[in-house]
Sequence to fold (531 residues):
Amino acid sequence: MSLRIVEEEMDPEIKELIEKGFDKTKVLKVSLPKPGAVVQRNVDALLTGFKYVVKPMRLTIDYPYKAVEYPEGYRGMFRVDDNKCVGCSLCDVVCPADAIRLVLKDKKKVPVINWGRCIFCYFCVDICPVEAFETTKYHDAVFTRFEDMLTTLEEFTKRPEDYVPMRKIGKRYKVVIDEYRGLRYEPVG
Amino acid sequence: MVYIGPLEIPGRLIYDFLHIFILPGFGAILVLVILIIWAERKIAGLVQLRYGPLHVSRRIGGALQLVADLIRYSLQEFIVPENVDKIAYLMAPALALLFAVIPIAFMPTAPGIAPPIYVEPNLLLILAVISLAPIFVIVTGVASDNKFAFIGSLREAFLMISYEIPFIISILSTAFIYGTLDLYKIVEAQSKAFLGVLLNPFAALVAYIAILRITGRFPFEISEAESELVMGPYTEYSGLMYGVAMGIGYIKLYVYTLLFSIVFLGGWLPISSTGNIVFDYILGNIILLIKASILMLIAVFLRSVYPRYRIDQAVRLGWSLILILSGAAVAWSLIIRLIIWR
Fold:
């Protein structure tokens, strides 16, 4: 009686397996560990750990000395071209982090950014009707004071690498999917 | 035995100084603790498929990371919270450190040379002194007015009782085999037969598991559980006192593994006394330290493999399996002593 209830409530995938001819008892017992296997599992865990100690398989990259080459369309820091800008203030309205504010330049409103608030969502870049923002892949900025993160218009019209202090990055690498390790890094160029 | 007796003043004083301040003493502690904490972080990094500490001193793989950490701790502000019991709060970690270090003075670490303080039953004395250290850990938790610290010290109290008893039983069970409580004679007895690990494997297993618990290494790192109780009994400490509190576990690991390698791994054993005191002192100590270092490396390697036991699981394990195994160790020792090896 109870067995029939179990069969009716069974997962359809397991039901299908049983109908295909698998031994039902084997299918149902699959998650029970054997009591003698505790030692075996402990030894397996220790050996796996030891394998990684003697033969390292690192998935991270040695960052400031090597860095990943970012793909096209990577959302890094950006600048504004104040000659293209028409002062529509759409970027200020759409900014979810309230990072953009407008300053007056020759009776025209032009955006400046606070890098401390910017979340790099690129809504401003997308919404701009005249494509006044020029994007870059840089994001490795290092600021030592909060005030430095508030850009002036003069700074925001320059490319970020010209006014933002940046870490010196060594060689660039690209990420390759590897069947054995998951990820692999290959030097670019 | 070619002990340098207490009456030969010149050699005796120089040896005492070296024993306490250089080779098995403070100098070796400082160097080994720095290297072991670095190794712990590095091994955890390798097993978790990352680099581990590397930026400080890149050429030697970041081995000076802990020196940088210590400089940072000592420059940090040391805050004494308002409601703590100030005397206990300041004294307890220092006393815990002191009672963890004192047993080194009783340990013979080289062939033919007596330790600075030589008494006949020095194994018993070491066990008595080293058992005092956890009491000050509990004092630390109660003195700092913090619920995390209090819970941590309660856990320490539970675990201390449930693992120190099997440890002491299993260490003393080897005394049945060797027929002495003097560590020097224990090593001599091992040189005549087998190493202690082979003579009584149950006692060695229980002692090593209990060392893992007593020094707070990983499957039993319950009283300082980072993800539950910020730092356990040491939650309220900052600055240099935090560095001391963090180091206590590793210094205890060093002292306990020294004791373990004397009792079970034969101390300085491949060599015996040659009569040349300088040679004996250096080589004996280095062999002993290599044995202890391997045990410490295994202990810190477990951090990257095992998760943390719950408090009730650990206490149950201590009072059931570990205590039964320590009883088995006593029985095995008696069998060996009375029947096999008279």
In short: Residues 78-163 of chain A form a domain with the Alpha-Beta Plaits fold (CATH 3.30.70.3270). The first helix of chain A runs from residue 2 to 8. DSSP finds eight helices and seven strands in chain A. Chain A has a mean pLDDT of 81.
